[in-house]
Known about the structure:
The chain is an alpha+beta fold. Strands 12-9-11-10-14-15-13 form a seven-stranded antiparallel sheet, sandwiched between helices. It has a four-stranded mixed sheet with strand order 1-2-4-3. A four-stranded antiparallel sheet has the order 5-8-6-7. Helix content is 34%, strand content 19%. Helix 1 (7-16) runs antiparallel to helix 3 and helix 9 packs across helix 11. The chain is globular and about 70 Å long. The protein has 14 helices and 15 strands. The chain starts with 6 loop residues before the first helix and ends in a 16-residue tail after the last helix. The protein has helices at residues 7-16, 25-28, 52-65, 117-126, 143-148, 156-159, 194-198, 232-245, 257-267, 291-299, 311-331, 346-360, 386-402, 427-440; strands at 21-22, 45-47, 69-72, 89-92, 108-112, 166-172, 178-180, 207-214, 221-229, 249-256, 279-287, 305-308, 335-340, 365-371, 376-382. Bound molecules: flavin-adenine dinucleotide. Flavin-adenine dinucleotide binds next to strand 3, helix 5 and strand 8.
Amino acid sequence: MPAHDDPLAGALAAIVGAPHVLTDPEVKATYEVDWTSRYRGESRLVVRPAGTAEVAAVVRECAAAGVPIVAQGGNTGFVGGGVPRGGEVVLSLARMDDVEPPDQAAAQIAAGAGATLAAVQDAARRAGHFFSIDLGARDSATIGGLLATNAGGTRAFRYGMARAHVVGIEAVLANGAVVSRMAGLPKDNTGYDLAQLLVGSEGTLGVITRARLALTSRGGSVATALVGIESTAEAVELFARLRRDLPGLDAAELFYANGLELVRAHAGLPAPLARAFPAYLLLECSAVAGAQDDLVAALGADADAVLADDSTTRQRLWRYRESHTEAVSARWIPLKLDVALPLSRLAAFVDELTAFARAELPAAQVFVYGHAGDGNLHVQLVGLDAAAERDAMAAVLALVARNGGSIGAEHGVGVAKRDWLHLTRAPGDVAAMQAVKRALDPEGVLNPGVLFPDGT
Ligand SMILES: Cc1cc2nc3c(=O)[nH]c(=O)nc-3n(C[C@H](O)[C@H](O)[C@H](O)COP(=O)(O)OP(=O)(O)OC[C@H]3O[C@@H](n4cnc5c(N)ncnc54)[C@H](O)[C@@H]3O)c2cc1C
């Protein structure tokens, strides 16, 4: 049907205003493909409401018309859950980006679902607080997306994932009802915690419209070190020692020689250390004062490390790690597998993965990097055709499961991994999750096709 004849477009325009209902294929296009260019689908239309009441009215209208909804924030997700598969309404939260001044006594901040992570970090910093979630997509990823995926990032081992920061959420359910727990009460034991139920639900249980988040404090002295190491096992040993001896440690990021070479070529960076190493750990710690002295003392005089405590040099060191995602995606559309292993199995997993790739995937290049402190690795495979990609994915995820890990560490399941959910969730778990989904969204209005293998 021509877009101008679409009665749903007219009904939604009456709610949000005609300029905020996008039906022109060229204008819609950026909402219909994900950050990696791997996942794409045509939407019926894109709607951009300005507040919770408008979201509720939009959801009711779409539900009445039997048209499913894909909520979208910054569209930086990696598992295809935030873009349409075909025919859905994309509900963009981008206009709902206000950030309130922090509540100083409670150390909390409230923001609209469309506020970017960077905007919340900045508002917290200006008020003398620290919002500890951090990740490379900070300028685009939104609070709604971070909570819907339960994002992790570089400081999760110390401060927790997105879930740990949630004090309250306002959201619209599939029937258009608004649920809201935004009072910011640290103690509130009055039944099921609906806010936490929505965290990590990947847009399948409700559209998050607003959140209240816990802030913390961080010492003003920050130091970063890039350390050359011989193996994954050494990375785990060093992390275990520093976690014990260096209370201010709040980042431990792992990458390997082939990733470093790719990043250097992509970003034009010099070699970070006097000689090359098989692997590298990027470490950061904070303290009230003297963070660099703490870090040097904990690392020991023999460490092959470059250190920085001024923000320009620290940012330069972070580029060696944070540019990995961009450097890989600039050359290929990688198969991205975000997995978590028990730290005790991390080294064995990397060895088994390397042996598997050498024997079974001679055409592939494998780039591995991630958040060592959580045993969270991003395995990126490039150079495979579609059939080989599916086989490789099955094999790598099975390897993760055999090592006691999770097939989805921080990016979620989305459409990318729904066929492998059984590897880390027992049949009883999946049945319970589907019962929750059916109870809250019996008609399958919110993000059908995401999370569950049967496409519900
Ligand atoms: C360079 C780069 C680095 C990254 N690093 C990390 C990292 O270290 N750790 C990490 O965890 N992730 C990382 N990511 C992935 C991504 O940034 C996160 O998954 C982020 O949480 C997604 O936020 P978004 O606003 O872009 O969500 P989107 O991509 O728009 O959506 C993601 C999912 O959330 C749902 N959703 C979005 N908004 C809402 C809402 N308001 N209500 C309900 N559902 C919603 C969507 O339907 C979809 O299923 C990285 C991405 C990039 C590009």
